């Protein structure tokens, strides 16, 4: 019996954000017995960016923004965890309601807006946890920081996260912070990447350890934009790329009553778009830096498609909400 099959109807009967908060609390309470509730996930080590991952299936950023449930998520068998998106200062995010389920499509629309308690709180949570696996910290800018000053926020995030992170992700692709996605374009992206890379190398000397730097991009990019990003990643020797974030497209859900809601769409409808970005990146990068794939991974077949398209690792988010923790063991056991 899958315990989540009993729990899901209850969770889906309440407000999505309330259900999310309830799930995190429940996970914290049950983390010590998670091994008895869910199938054991075998070790299937893979080395990427100089880091050894226990298995290639990770938690995508967004589910544990503040690092409150590191030990709980680790107990589910993930090969690595990515927390955040976190900003330099605490912020409430966008007005509620801001999270919507589309069960018919196995999808979610969110416009959370980087709601988080700030990076100092997150760092305290990391320090107090017993998690010792690969930890990604996903950083962004505060909503009230002008876009022309966004670089300042990313530098604060990198400097603060560097001492505890296994890798740091620059989130410039959320559709829920005004103007953020323009950082993926041309000169702005070049300035961001070059400055962050320079700071990374300074921090390496300061801390005596190298922490990889990863860029997270959107699924709504054109092939030309993907090529330009790939060229910049290689030019500045960035360590990896995450493809992709949520989409602003509604093509796959155009007839749904919630299709008009603004925000990023995740889950099954984004799968093909995300996989195509992975494929384009892989062709451009030609193995020079790794790709972490996320977007619409609802089963082992979806994960295998991402790996076949050129990814080295995968992450899940919406699939976990619809399928529960058994999804992790099913993917790890099933991928070739």
Descriptive notes:
The protein is an alpha/beta fold. The protein has one domain: TIM Barrel, CATH 3.20.20.70. About 40% of the residues lie in helices and about 15% in strands. It contains twelve helices and 13 strands. The protein has an eight-stranded parallel barrel with strand order 3-4-7-8-9-10-12-13, surrounded by five helices. A hairpin with a 2-residue loop joins strand 1 and strand 2. Helix 6 runs parallel beside helix 7, helix 7 packs parallel to helix 8 and helix 9 runs parallel beside helix 10.
Mean pLDDT: 95
Question: What is the number of domains?
Answer: 1
Bin the strand percentage: 15-25%
The sequence of SSEs as H and E is HHHEEEHEEEHEHEHEHEEHEHEHH
In CATH terms, the superfamily is Aldolase class I
What is the structural class? alpha/beta
Main pleated sheet? 8 strands, parallel, barrel
What does the radius of gyration come to?
A: 18 Å
The CATH class turns out to be Alpha Beta
Helix share of residues? 25-40%
Count the helices. How many? 12
Describe the structure concisely for a colleague:
This protein is of the alpha/beta class. The chain has helices spanning 3-11, 16-30, 34-37, 70-75, 119-128, 150-161, 186-207, 223-235, 271-285, 300-309, 318-323, 326-334; strands spanning 46-48, 51-53, 57-59, 80-86, 99-102, 107-110, 134-139, 167-171, 213-217, 240-243, 264-267, 291-294, 313-316.
Give descriptors for this structure.
single chain, about 325 residues, alpha/beta, TIM Barrel, eight-stranded parallel β-barrel, 12 helices, 13 strands, about 40% helix
